[in-house]
Amino acid sequence: MFDRQARRRLAAAAAGLALALTGGVTAPAVAAPGAAAAVPASDWLHVQGNQIVDEAGNPVWLTGTNWFGFNASERVFHGLWSGNITEITRSMANRGINIVRVPISTQLLLEWKAGTFGTVNVNTYANPELAGKNSLQIFDFWLQLCEQYGIKVMLDVHSAEADNSGHIHPVWYKGAITPELFYQGWEWVTSRYKANDTIVAMDIKNEPHGTPNDTARAKWDGSTDIDNWKHTAETAAKRILAINPNVLVLVEGQEIYPREGETWSSPNTDPDLSPNYYYNWWGGNLRGVRDHPINLGANQDQLVYSPHDYGPLVFNQPWFDKPFDKDSLTNDVWRPNWLYLHEDGTAPLLIGEWGGRLGQDERQDRWMTALRDLIVEHRLHQTFWVLNPNSGDTGGLLLDDWKTWDEEKYALLKPALWQHGGKFVGLDHQVPLGGAGSTTGISVSQVFGSADTVAPSVPGQPAATNVTATGLTLTWAASTDNVGVTSYDVLRNGTVVATISGTSHSVTGLTAATAYTFSVRARDAAGNVSAASAARSVTTGTGGGSSGDQGCSAAYKTVSSWSGGFQAEVTVRNTGTVGGTGWVVNWTYPSGTTVGSLWNGVQGTPAVTVRNAAHNGALAPGASTSFGLIGSGSAGAPALSCTLS
What is the tens place of the pLDDT at every residue in 147-175? Predict the structure, then answer.
C-alpha cells in the first residue's frame, strides 16, 4: 500500500496535469463527463490551509454529533439500557451525521490495554447483538456499524478517570493518571486502530480549563511545565502521529489567556474588577495560538483546532447581558478567541461542542441560530452536543425514549450538515452515508465524481468600509451555485491576495494615500470559478493624523452592568502608518454617570480624559491596547475622540 506522502505526490502530479490542461486554474480532481472518477485508496484526511481535504485534495465537511458514555463510569455508550445500538447508529447516518465524536477516558484506555473489563450497562433484550460482549468488544462492534453506514469516528479523551463528572477536573492528569500515562493511553489506542480509517480524528483532551486561583489549571505558553496545555497537546500529537501520520489531531483551547502586559503569574482576584485575563468557555480560548502556535513539523498538515462554545442556559457569560447578534458575537467573542485562525488561513476549525435546549430562553435560541449561521457561512466543521437526551444542561437530539428525534432541534442543526443535491454526504469514498442502498445519503466520491462543470454566479460588487491608512473591510453579496459555493478569491489590482469562505474580508498592510482596486470571484467544490465581480476602487487615508480614522481610533464596550453601575472596556488602536508614544481618549458621560475606578490608564478632568499608563503608551502602526473602568449611573456607550502623539 502507498504511504500518505506517496499518495499525495501522485495527487499533486495529477493536479499539475490538470493545471496544464486547464490553462493555469487549479481545481480538485473531477471526472470528465462519462468517465469514472478516481477514488482515493483510503478515507484518511489532511489539512490544506483552513480546509480539511481527502487524499485527492477534495475539500470535505465534517458535520456530526457527540455520543457520550464510554467516558463515564458505565464505560459504554449511554442509552443502551433501552435503545438499540444498530437502530441508533443507522438513524444518525440517515439524518446526515457523517462523524461521531466519542468521549472516552484515559483510565478506560489503560484498562483496555491491560485487558481489564468490568460489567457494562447494556439491555441485551434491546441489544441482542451485544450479548456477552465487554466494553471494548462493544466499541469494535459499533465501529463495524459505522463502516457499514458510512459514518466516521473521532475519539476524545474527555477526562482522566472514568467518571460521569470527570470533565469538571481542569487538566489531563489526576490521581494515578499521570501525564505519561495520558500519552501512553493515546499511543495504545492509536496503534490498535492505525489501519482502520473509520477512526479519522483524535481530540487530544476535552476542555482544559482553570484560573490562576485554582489548584490545577491549564495554561498556554512556551514552557514545558506540567500544566502547559500547549506543550502537552504538541507532545501528545507528535506521539500519536509517529504511530499513524494519517489521522487528524484536534487541539482545543483552554479557559483564560493573559491580557496584553500580563503574565501567567498575574493575580486573578475577580474577573469583573481586575480583568488581567481574557475569559472564554472551557476549551474555547485559543488566543494563545497567535503567540505560541502548535508545531507538528512534517505532520503540521494533520492539525485542526477545536474550540467549544455554548449559550446562556449553560452559563450566563457577560456578552449575553447586553444586546447581541451574530455580528457582535463574531467581533466580541468568536473572532478574537478562535475564528481568526480560520480567517487567517492558519488551520481548520472544528467546533467540537455547541448546542443546547430550545424554547426556554430567547437569548439561547438567538445564540444557537447565530453560531449555526456562522458555521454554515464559513463551512466550519462541527460536532453538535449532543445525541444523548440525558445531558442535563443541553438535552439531546434524541428524546428520552432514545428513539424519537427532537425535530425542532434537528431542524436547527440540519443546515449545518453536509448536503449535496438534496442528499447528505458521508466521508467514506465507497459507502454512502446511510449504507448500501441509502435513499438519503451519498458518498464523498459521488460528490466529486459528478462532473460538475457549472461555475457559480458572479458575486456582488464589494463595498469598502472602515477605510484607514493601512486597511479596510470588504463585504459583498454571495454567489449562488448548483451545488454550493465553497470559497471566494479576493483580488487586489487583479491579483488574488486571499481565499476565504465568507462574504467579508479585512484587508491589512496597505499603504497610506494609495489607490487600490478590489474585486472578488467565487469557487465551488469542483473547482469551477466564476467571473470576477465589478471592481471597487478605494483610496486609503493619509495616516499620521491625530484623531478619528486618521491615526487613532477608540472603541467603547460595556462588559457588564448592574443596578446603578457597570464595567466598560475601551480599546485604543493606532490606525496610522507611524508609531505613537502616547494616546489620549476623551468623552462626556450623561449627567449622573461617573467613573469610579480605572486600570491601564490615567484619568484626568474635566469630563473624562484618559491618558495612557506608563506601560501601554507606545503603539506601533496597527497595534492596540485597552483600558477598563468601573462606573456608576447609565451604562450607555458615549461618543469617543482619540489622539495619538
Answer: 999 999 999 999 999 999 999 999 999 99
The stretch 372-379 carries a mean pLDDT of: 95
Strand partners, 642: 585
**Mean pLDDT confidence for 495-509:** 85
Q: Which amino acid is at 315?
A: F
Count of residues in the chain: 645
How far apart (Å, rounded) are the C-alpha atoms in residues 70 and 363?
Answer: 32
Q: Quote the pTM value.
A: 0.71
Pairing of strands 536-539, 515-524: antiparallel
Task: Name the H helices within 198-264.
Answer: 229-243
What is the Cα–Cα distance from 612 to 552, expressed in whole angstroms? 13
Distance in angstroms (rounded) separating the CA atoms of residues 253 and 307? 6
**C-alpha to C-alpha distances, 186 to 263, 289, 364, 530, nearest whole angstrom:** 31, 23, 36, 45
3-state secondary structure of 291: helix
What number of other Cβ atoms are within 10 A of residue 4's Cβ? 17
- CA quadruple 112, 117, 122, 124: dihedral positive or negative? positive
pLDDT, tens digit, 9 for 90 and up, residues 462-480 = 988 888 888 888 989 999 8
The dihedral built from the CA positions of residue 293, 297, 298 and 304, taken in this order, carries a sign that is negative
Q: pLDDT band at residue 604, thresholds of 50, 70 and 90?
A: low
Rounded CA gap, 299 and 231, in Å?
16
One-letter identity of residue 195 = A
How far apart are alpha carbons 6 and 583 in whole angstroms?
56
Whether omega for the bond prior to residue 171 falls within 30 degrees of 0, making it cis, is no
Angle at 81 between CA 77 and CA 82, to 5 degrees: 115
Domains of the chain listed by start with CATH number: 63-448 (3.20.20.80), 463-539 (2.60.40.10), 548-644 (2.60.40.290)
Phi/psi at 241 (nearest 5 deg)?
-75, -20
Distances from the Cα of 33 to the Cαs of 36, 113, 346, in angstroms? 9, 50, 35
**Residues 389-420 pLDDT 10s:** 999 999 999 999 999 999 999 999 999 999 99
212, amino acid identity: P
Contact 518, 538 (CB under 8 A): yes
Taking only Cα atoms into account, the Rg of the chain, rounded to an integer number of angstroms, comes to 26
Helix (H) or strand (E) holding 288: helix 288-291
Q: Taking all residues of the chain, what is their mean pLDDT, rounded to a whole number?
A: 88
Angle at 102 between CA 128 and CA 130, to 5 degrees: 10
The helix/strand/coil state of 140 is helix
The 3 state secondary structure assigned to 98-135 is CEEEEEEEHHHHHHHHHCCCCCCCCCCCCCHHHCCCCH
Contacts of 173 (CB under 8 A, 6+ apart): 160, 179, 182, 226
Sign for the CA dihedral angle at 158, 160, 166, 170 comes to negative
> For residue 47, which amino acid is it?
V
Looking at the DSSP assignment, which residues form a beta bridge with residue 155? Answer: 102, 202
* Residues designated as active site: 207, 353
